[in-house]
Amino acid sequence: MPRPSHRGKILAEGLKVVHERGFAGASVRDIVQAAGVPQGSFTNHFASKEAFGLEVLELYFANTRDILRDTLRNDALPPLKRLGDYIDWSISRLCVNQTRNGCLLGNFALEASDHSDAIRHRVVEIFAELQQSFEYCLASAAKAGELPADFDCNDVAGFIVASLQGSILLAKAQRSPQPVVRFKHLLFSKILR
């Protein structure tokens, strides 16, 4: 009889540990303790902590993709409402832990990019996918007449990704969602006109 796999449990609980403590701050021992599995289970399922980190990124972004589908890429809703809904979701996710954890993507970009090219490349790809979703939403807004027809959707989408990540980083440091709230206000009152 084969032994049960602890892979999913290690990933789910490991994601929480890494998001709370950071990639470098989360030891393999911390991860397996949180999952309630023997330490050998980690090496049975992951060739390295870097390989585990890449899978944690995928798990985290899979959840984000669901939100992208329901907000930025949801053609049943007015485009600028979708954009506002995505930012509101970002604020509510931040507030779950009093903004202490920030965004795992931004955390990995800051912390792991210097130590792992594989993680750095994957984070860049994920940010590009986020930018494409913002661009899709903005292009829909231009097509619907919510924005000027010649609106620079690509540049503004890049600005949104960078500014949202920056405001989330500040929110984490300040232990307040206010920087993201301010970003949303300025985005809608000054840029998306």
TrEMBL record:
<feature type="domain" description="HTH tetR-type">
    <location>
        <begin position="4"/>
        <end position="64"/>
    </location>
</feature>
<dbReference type="GO" id="GO:0003677">
    <property type="term" value="F:DNA binding"/>
</dbReference>
<keyword id="KW-0805">Transcription regulation</keyword>
<keyword id="KW-0238">DNA-binding</keyword>
<keyword id="KW-0804">Transcription</keyword>
<dbReference type="InterPro" id="IPR036271">
    <property type="entry name" value="Tet_transcr_reg_TetR-rel_C_sf"/>
</dbReference>
<protein>
    <submittedName>
        <fullName>Transcriptional regulator, TetR family</fullName>
    </submittedName>
</protein>
<dbReference type="Pfam" id="PF00440">
    <property type="entry name" value="TetR_N"/>
</dbReference>
<dbReference type="InterPro" id="IPR011075">
    <property type="entry name" value="TetR_C"/>
</dbReference>
<dbReference type="InterPro" id="IPR001647">
    <property type="entry name" value="HTH_TetR"/>
</dbReference>
<dbReference type="InterPro" id="IPR009057">
    <property type="entry name" value="Homeodomain-like_sf"/>
</dbReference>
<dbReference type="Pfam" id="PF16925">
    <property type="entry name" value="TetR_C_13"/>
</dbReference>
<feature type="DNA-binding region" description="H-T-H motif">
    <location>
        <begin position="27"/>
        <end position="46"/>
    </location>
</feature>
